[in-house]
From TrEMBL:
Name of the featured protein: DUF423 domain-containing protein
Membrane-spanning segments: 12-33, 54-73, 79-101, 113-135
Biological source species: Promicromonospora sukumoe
Keywords: Membrane, Transmembrane, Transmembrane helix
Amino acid sequence: MLELSDPARITAGIVLLTVVGIESGGFFLLKVFGGRLATTDLQKSFFRAGHAHAGVLVILGLLCLLLTEATGLTGFLRWLAATGVLVAAILMPAGFFLSAIGTGRTAPNRAVVLLPAGAVVLGAGVVTLAGGLLLG
């Protein structure tokens, strides 16, 4: 049986609850693509990308959380390996959704800066975890 540290167990439980939010995002997308909400092409593509990134990154984040338990990482590097992808799972979807909100928006607003910020945290998290796994 896999032994999780208390912080990993609690984090995993909380993250699993976010799936309900992602699920409601799917309901929102049904409204958008069903024509029940007036949206621009930019908004449709950004809303779809935000939803997809949320789902994929939450799954990858849970996997990273579990894999971190198999490393000898400590301190900030352990935190980054365990939760970097989960932080990106907040930043990147937020960047897609927040930068596309507003009636008739055809170009992203300044919230688009969350996308590269999330990408940096994502990369740092997976590279740190990979190093922890490969180096023991």
